[in-house]
């Protein structure tokens, strides 16, 4: 295969993504995320908007110091103060940059900025020129470009190139564009803007009509060589272009796009999970690429096809995005032969397994649980063969916390101390422990890990309400990791901390059971 032209991935999870409700991250969390973005291989990290608050300034600075390979930049309006702040925030970066923006649509110029087109042009050029005295890497964005007059954009972009801009960004700020039209806008701008051939053109799409990925792909098909996107597609309103989707579309359809990225795609799934864990924003199960069901097959015909040849129903390999394996989901519609087939593929069809009994248990489980995953089958067989009870039983959870509401700057309640006293019966004997953590759920997790002798990491954690009203039952689902092994767990309760504790204990029981079975069979 010939070397394909590269498209730069500009990650704005920490700026545009973080602007979305519920996605606020503190400085430490942003640094953690930035390090993972570097592992993922993004080319540019937009770490924040330094002038917007001292907290944002500090976060950009810390991110700039934490990563080496990607360019780190801060957003700035055209005001000199904004530019000074942005430049200071990235001063210690190995590869610093700045991202200056101003709106160019008639609506925004007139109603939001109260400026004439000439004033906007002047402000843009002065800002870029000013920044250019201190830094080489300057991106300029024409906010609301997709609703701006293309000839005015040609004029603005031509002048900012002269002033020193090296990347020109064309945002679909309101998610209004449609792919053909957005692609045509790029073609027009690239061919008509004086100096347009020597800069990098960038697409920044919002997802209000669900077209952000399609619009970004149309842009690259028409000459853009940078895509601005966020992990899991988080961002203002309906979000931004989702990195995982746009990257995998170019990789999977390289025959069509003829383009490549620097993304280490096996880091996609871990990055998605880390963000979800940090923000608490769960990934929908049917989300392309990173959703739980993205590689899960339930229909009998599909399962049959995938067992014979994965490519029948899979256009990507789960391991290429960092997922362990494809999942063949079983449910109450699965027949006996499909069930036996699954046991065989999973290495669970051994002489000590009573198939009739196992299938009867599977049907009972299918009545209680809509989707049965590979781990459920492993635990089902382990339980059947070992004929033992679960080792751990949650007896009591007593959480307590002191919450300080004064941390307005970070727009989050600051939990100064959280504790949980947990009692668990281990092989029938009650044991109690008190632990302190970052939150009540964290304190519970620490206590349970210590009580069972299995300190675990949370790979995934999320919840949903099952019933309405004040006494609503909530379900917590988690995936824990102990050493090399991972396992799902679920807990239901009216209190979210108790539901979490039940989920952790459930996951540990399942993991324990499966581990014992594995050891008995010399590792499966
Ligand atoms: O959506 C938008 O227009 C932006 C700009 C600041 C680039 O986020
Ligand atoms: Zn945006």
Automatic annotation (TrEMBL):
Q: Which UniProt keywords apply?
A: Amino-acid biosynthesis, Branched-chain amino acid biosynthesis, Cytoplasm, Leucine biosynthesis, Manganese, Metal-binding, Transferase
**Where is it found, in Gene Ontology cellular component terms?**
cytoplasm
BP GO terms, sorted: L-leucine biosynthetic process
Cite the InterPro entries for this sequence: 2-IPM_HCS-like, 2-isopropylmalate_synth_dimer, AIPM/Hcit_synth_CS, Aldolase_TIM, LeuA/HCS_post-cat, LeuA_allosteric_dom_sf, LeuA_bact_synth, PYR_CT
Q: Does the keyword Ribosomal protein apply?
A: no
Annotated region Regulatory domain: where? 393-524
Q: Which SUPFAM superfamilies match?
A: 2-isopropylmalate synthase LeuA, allosteric (dimerisation) domain, Aldolase
**Reaction it catalyzes:** 3-methyl-2-oxobutanoate + acetyl-CoA + H2O = (2S)-2-isopropylmalate + CoA + H(+)
Q: Please name the pathway.
A: Amino-acid biosynthesis; L-leucine biosynthesis; L-leucine from 3-methyl-2-oxobutanoate: step 1/4
Q: Which Pfam families would you find in this protein's record?
A: HCS_D2, HMGL-like, LeuA_dimer
- Write one Gene Ontology MF term: 2-isopropylmalate synthase activity
Q: Can you tell me which residues bind Mn(2+)?
A: 16, 204, 206, 240
The Swiss-Prot or TrEMBL record lists the needed cofactor(s) as: Mn(2+)
**Domain of life per record:** Bacteria
Domain annotation Pyruvate carboxyltransferase: ranges: 7-269
Functionally, this protein is described as follows:
Catalyzes the condensation of the acetyl group of acetyl-CoA with 3-methyl-2-oxobutanoate (2-ketoisovalerate) to form 3-carboxy-3-hydroxy-4-methylpentanoate (2-isopropylmalate).
Family that this chain belongs to: Belongs to the alpha-IPM synthase/homocitrate synthase family. LeuA type 1 subfamily.
The subunit field of the Swiss-Prot or TrEMBL record says: Homodimer.
Q: What is this protein called?
A: 2-isopropylmalate synthase
Q: Which gene encodes it?
A: leuA
